[in-house]
Amino acid sequence: WSRMYTKFVLGQNCKECILSGIVSVKGKKVLHMDRNSYYGGESASITPLEDLYKRTSFFVNPPSPPPKRKSWSNIWEQKFLMASGQLVKMLMYTEVTRYLDFKVIEGSFVYKGSKIYKVPSTETEALGSSLMGLLEKRRFRRFLIYVTDFDENDPKTFQDLDPKKNTMRDVFKKFSLGPDVVDFTGHALALYRTDDYLDEPGFVGTINRCKLYSDSLARYGKSPYLYPLYGLGELPQGFARLSAIYGGTYMLNKPIDEIVVENGKVVGVKSEGEIARCKQLICDPSYVPDRVRKVGQVIRVICVMNHPIKSTSDANSCQIIIPQNQVNRKSDIYVCMISYAHNIAAQGKYVAIISTTVETNDPEKEIKPALALLEPVEQKFVSYSDLFEPVDLGHESQANCAC
């Protein structure tokens, strides 16, 4: 405990585990402590399924009695990886892929008028999509060509638009794209959760998001998303192994008694009467409640089914995005579905997770449009997670929190 650590990580979230692995590769001395007995926090894989029913403090009215099932690696938070995204590049750079196997998600869909449609992201798909009328298809095709050809270093590709001053709303207006097309472009291709992006000056970020979706789709064809076999909990475990190889130290099931501060600087962490000293502390909000403030809440509903989602061509995995405007909300609703094909469920079983930002006093009513897409559901688990933001960035105290 007298050893001085360059980085000291307190974490129960996937991002802390990833961070500790990366900084270990960069030659930093890392000690990662976690009050939990498992990796990943809300991104953890829960095995066997019976353990999921024991998380009574996490779920609201969990169903009972627990079924006697084997071959489950269930999770309570799903996140898909963009095939050409930064995290995948990070996995390749750090060679964490030696510990992981991935499988492509079979479909990407968007919700419109109580129905779901495959997301068109290429010229050919746009022309064949039933999501748009004939004239809209042509206009959307021209927009996709613009996105493909756009180069922020080549003014010839701007087409009389200023990438720094014009908004994305101006771009959509130039190509005469209607509200529904704008909806699935901004929310299912660019993956924005709200419409705030439309009126922000500069549209390069949105164009790059659309390009990322297209590039990721081109890698595997079915969808732009990847998911690790055996669940998202494999990611933090992979980075934990990586950190250990480069000298990092992990302590699970380790209580945190106190964050030690001297002269306004965080200098260590006290646990079970001992102090581990460090130069910098990185942690999730639950470890520093006095340094964060609650800014919202997320509802997640885990649904266990014995069938694929309708209108997805019997896909064993998919993502469905319900744009805010389609259900009179301020933020989108996400449905992520995986199955036995990803080794997270028994043969013939499917697990879908609905998630969205809470906007009313009746969160379960907010996600009814998503639940309607999944019926019938065998078992349902409802949970709520608080959203936090730091009250300061930690530059002066040398402490940062991942919220």
From TrEMBL:
GO CC terms: Golgi apparatus; membrane
BP GO annotations: protein transport; small GTPase-mediated signal transduction; vesicle-mediated transport
Keywords, ordered alphabetically: Acetylation, Cytoplasm, Golgi apparatus, GTPase activation, Membrane, Phosphoprotein
Quaternary structure annotation from Swiss-Prot or TrEMBL: Interacts with RHOH. Interacts with the GDP-bound inactive forms of RAB3A, RAB3B, RAB3C, RAB5A, RAB5B, RAB5C, RAB8A, RAB8B, RAB10, RAB12, RAB35, and RAB43; binds RAB3D to a lesser extent. Interacts with DZIP1; this interaction negatively regulates the interaction of GDI2 with GDP-bound RAB8A.
Protein name: Rab GDP dissociation inhibitor
Keyword Ribosomal protein in annotation: no
Known role: Regulates the GDP/GTP exchange reaction of most RAB proteins by inhibiting the dissociation of GDP from them, and the subsequent binding of GTP. GDP-dissociation inhibitor preventing the GDP to GTP exchange of most Rab proteins. By keeping these small GTPases in their inactive GDP-bound form regulates intracellular membrane trafficking. Negatively regulates protein transport to the cilium and ciliogenesis through the inhibition of RAB8A.
Highest taxon, organism lineage: Eukaryota
Gene label: GDI2
Organism of origin: Latimeria chalumnae
